[in-house]
Design a protein that fits this description.
There is one protein chain. This protein is of the alpha+beta class. It folds into two domains: 45 residues; 61 residues, no CATH class. Helix content is 44%, strand content 11%. The chain is built from six helices and four strands; from the N terminus they run ααβαβααββα. The protein has a two-stranded antiparallel sheet with strand order 1-2.
Length: 135
């Protein structure tokens, strides 16, 4: 019992040490912009995203629901790339992929103003898309 109590007290004291300073006017403005952004499909998660960004949490875009690239657009891009992942090619791997083995990637990330448009699309193998970090 003592061990559980002391662990809980320790955790509580650590949580109390963490404090973030939020600018509510900026957060309200940012949230309004996100709500109006055509790239965001649903407003659910916008508050969590904004609080995560303001607290320095890595990977905050996981809270947002983005508009994805349509399948026909991804098929066309994959054919244009001759069924290769450009990052695999850079590594000397010329494997050809099927659409189900690839994912659409924003060349310029949404977080940097990139749109879900054909000219901003590249098809990456799942491994490389997971390794690419844009937040």
């Amino acid at each position: 019992m003592f061990c559980k109590m002391s662990s809980a007290f320790y955790l509580f004291s650590k949580i109390q040490q963490i404090s973030y300073s939020y600018n509510s006017a900026k957060i309200d403005k940012d949230i309004a912009q996100l709500i109006d952004d055509d790239e965001i499909k649903k407003t659910k998660g916008i508050w969590q995203y904004e609080l995560a960004i303001n607290s320095g949490e890595a990977g905050a875009t996981k809270y947002l629901n983005f508009r994805g690239f349509p399948k026909d657009m991804m098929r066309k891009k994959l054919k244009e790339q001759e069924y290769h992942c450009p990052l695999c090619i850079e590594e000397g791997n010329d494997k050809t992929y099927t659409l189900s083995e690839m994912e659409g990637d924003h060349i310029t990330p949404w977080s940097e103003g990139g749109k879900t448009e054909y000219d901003n699309l590249q098809m990456l193998c799942k491994r490389h898309n997971r390794l690419k970090s844009n937040h």
